[in-house]
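Bug #2210: token dump truncated for Helix-turn-helix transcriptional regulator?
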Amino acid sequence: MNGEYIYPEDAPMIRIGYSNSTEFTNREFDIIRELAQGRKYEEIAADLDITQNTVKYHIKNILQKTGYQNTLQLVAEVVEKRLILPKY
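Reproduced locally. Full output below:
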């Protein structure tokens, strides 16, 4: 292929609520992935080895960035836009 790349160097920017996908931290994406799997806060905390208060803190920040009222709106949007693909 003559050293050419067929994949973009960066992931495309996707609008989620009031924010762009590039504005989320890696940990926030971890939390969003867990929510998309239908995990409860306690399960997310255990899976990511953090406290439930830390999970709540990240979710609060994510909701503020996006302008959504709840995590259901957030998960619906990220799944619809294929930013996160849940494993069913």
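Output looks complete on our side. The chain is about 50% helix and 5% strand. Marking as cannot-reproduce; reopen if the truncation happens again.
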